[in-house]
Amino acid sequence: MAEDPDRLLVHVAGRVRRPGVYTLATGARIADALEEAGGGRPGADLDALN
Fold this sequence. Notes:
By secondary structure, the protein is an alpha+beta fold.
């Protein structure tokens, strides 16, 4: 796969609705990745993101 400097791949795992690898715009925030993954599931500790 060719690299695109305007996009980045992000792996979202844990207590989210749709874990997986997502392509986001460069400069995207962790909240954007969480939104792509469908948000947190019940019991998710959103203060413990990294």
